[in-house]
């Protein structure tokens, strides 16, 4: 069924400052493409099957711009360290296990089952440096119906023997094989070039994968300016760059020629911000992770006001949950702390802005995605907020606001559609 109508209480972002809500209305999907939101079913669509979700909230699917699949195994554990020691003590030992495909099979079954049942319809996913385990992850992501980009990581320096590629040449060759094998293998799952972060990749490796990204037309994802210790280390490792992003940009890994997602950007300098804007880089804001590994608070108000592209990331297991509803709540909360404690000229984010980042803002990375607009790919979720009872009259807008803050706690998701196909 890729042509149908859903009836319900519709919520969608028009721009970053506006959530459009329509009570008891219709959103039309034709051949997997959204035709718009209507208060009456227009004549040409009268014969399409109707999905009746009267009284429920119907909104675009959530977009997670940054998540680590192998780290899902230890989510909620190991929150007692800062980033660099957290990587050494928790992330790297866990990721080393994915050399064993039996372990990967078990762990990735758990991960893909969890994200399938989440509100997320689009994801940018980090695997591990292991090509085979990452291809196994892609097989499993494909079965969820979610549209995702999945990366085999590059790591050829500054990591333990158990989690480091033998040389830059090996790292590049494995990446090329990964791209060749997965580029056209799936309908909904795509490879993405994934240097873990600057400390993990030699210049030779970055240069090689930058060329592959251009040659195969594949996007890029990585981490940027996350934590003070990390940034100081990058400065030492790259004395000939003026700021962190240059270490990606000089190898074509920073939004040009291919789109790029950079997670965090907590401490980006004015020059770095200007380059992100110029190159159209997507920022993945991951507030939970920034709290849990004590990185700080990203100045998202500033990025949005400057017109940068910003989406949300769960960053499991730096973040404790894959719920983008929780990520929206945390983005709102940390923006208030930033305003109160760091810079009182940066107004807190609004609910409209948080919802925009979780849908249309991040969705832009995937094309016309993340809103119920004519011509957009049809991704939708249905939330039964009657499971959050209330005695008073609430508008659709108020119910959405409550759902953002509260539905991380309950099982309120009753249906999910991706590219016009019902997947839950
Ligand atoms: N920087 C490099 N690797 C990682 C990771 O796994 N998680 C986070 N949050 N930051 C990183
Ligand atoms: Fe991360």
Topology:
Blueprint: E1 4-15, E2 18-30, E3 33-38, E4 50-60, E5 62-68, H1 83-96, H2 101-116, E6 120-126, H3 131-144, E7 147-151, E8 153-154, H4 168-182, E9 189-191, E10 194-195, H5 203-216, E11 220-224, H6 228-237, H7 246-249, E12 260-264, H8 270-279, E13 282-285, H9 287-292, H10 300-305, E14 309-312, H11 324-342, H12 351-363, E15 380-383, H13 396-406, E16 413-418, E17 421-422
Parallel strand pairs: 1-4, 5-6, 6-7, 7-9, 8-10, 11-12, 12-13, 13-14
Antiparallel strand pairs: 1-2, 2-3, 4-15, 15-16, 16-17
Helix pairs in contact: 2-3, 4-5, 11-12, 11-13
Commentary on this structure:
The chain is α/β, with parallel strands linked by helices and 424 residues long. The chain is globular and about 60 Å long. Helix 2 packs parallel to helix 3, helix 11 crosses helix 12 (351-363) and helix 11 (324-342) crosses helix 13. The protein is 36% helix and 23% strand. The model has no long low-confidence stretch (mean pLDDT 97). The protein folds into two domains: 4-60 and 371-422, Urease, subunit C, domain 1, CATH 2.30.40; 62-366, Alpha-Beta Barrel (TIM Barrel). It binds guanine and fe (iii) ion. The site of fe (iii) ion has 6 residues, from strand 5.
Largest sheet, in brief, is: 7 strands, mixed
Strand content: 15-25%
Helix proportion of residues, in percent?
A: 25-40%
Strand order of the largest sheet: 3-2-1-4-15-16-17
In this entry the ligands are:
guanine, fe (iii) ion
Radius of gyration: 21 Å
Mean pLDDT: 97
Following the backbone from N to C, one meets helices and strands in this order, namely EEEEEHHEHEEHEEHEHHEHEHHEHHEHEE
Query: Which oligomerization state do the chains in this entry correspond to?
Result: single chain
CATH topology heading of the largest domain: TIM Barrel
Q: Supply the helix-strand structural class.
A: alpha/beta
Q: Tell me the number of strands.
A: 17
**CATH level-two architecture of the largest domain:** Alpha-Beta Barrel
CATH C-level category of the largest domain: Alpha Beta
CATH superfamily of the largest domain: Metal-dependent hydrolases
Number of helices: 13
Shape: globular
Identify low-pLDDT runs: none
- How many separate domains? 2
Termini Cα gap: 13 Å
């Amino acid at each position: 069924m890729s042509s149908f109508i859903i009836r319900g209480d519709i919520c969608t972002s028009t721009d970053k400052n506006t959530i459009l809500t329509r009570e008891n209305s219709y959103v039309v999907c034709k051949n997997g493409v959204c035709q718009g939101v209507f208060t009456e079913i227009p004549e040409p669509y009268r014969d399409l099957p109707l999905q009746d979700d009267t009284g429920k909230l119907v909104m675009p699917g959530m977009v997670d711009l940054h998540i680590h699949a192998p780290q899902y195994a230890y989510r909620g554990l190991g929150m007692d360290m800062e980033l660099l020691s957290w990587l050494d003590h928790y992330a790297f030992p866990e990721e080393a296990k994915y050399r064993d495909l039996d372990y990967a099979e078990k762990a990735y079954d758990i991960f893909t089952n969890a994200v399938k049942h989440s509100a997320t319809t689009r994801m940018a996913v980090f695997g591990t440096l292991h090509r085979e385990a990452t291809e196994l992850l892609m097989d499993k992501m494909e079965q969820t119906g979610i549209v995702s980009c999945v990366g085999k990581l590059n790591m050829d320096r500054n990591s333990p023997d158990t989690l480091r590629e033998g040389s830059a040449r090996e790292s590049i060759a494995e990446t090329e094989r990964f791209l060749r094998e997965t580029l056209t293998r799936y309908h909904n799952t795509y490879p993405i070039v994934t240097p873990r972060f600057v400390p993990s990749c030699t210049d030779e490796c970055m240069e090689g994968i930058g060329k592959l990204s251009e040659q195969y037309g594949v996007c890029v994802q990585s981490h940027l300016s996350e934590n003070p210790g990390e940034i100081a280390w990058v400065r030492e490792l790259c004395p000939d760059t003026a700021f962190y992003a240059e270490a990606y940009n000089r190898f074509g890994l920073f939004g040009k020629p291919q789109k790029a997602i950079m997670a965090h950007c907590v401490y980006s300098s004015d020059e770095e911000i200007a380059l992100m804007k110029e190159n159209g880089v997507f920022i993945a804001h991951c507030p939970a992770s920034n709290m849990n590994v004590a990185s700080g608070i990203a100045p998202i108000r500033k990025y949005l006001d400057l017109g940068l592209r910003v989406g949300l990331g769960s960053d499991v297991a730096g973040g404790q949950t894959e719920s983008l509803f929780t990520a929206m709540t945390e983005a709102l909360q940390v923006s208030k702390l930033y305003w109160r404690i760091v810079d009182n000229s940066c107004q807190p984010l609004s609910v409209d802005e948080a919802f925009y980042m979780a849908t249309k803002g991040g969705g832009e990375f995937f094309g016309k995605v993340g809103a119920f607009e004519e011509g957009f790919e049809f991704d939708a979720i249905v939330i039964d907020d009657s499971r959050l009872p209330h005695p008073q009259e609430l508008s659709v807008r108020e119910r959405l606001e409550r759902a953002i803050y509260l539905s991380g706690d309950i099982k309120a998701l009753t249906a999910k559609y991706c590219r016009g196909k019902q997947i839950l």
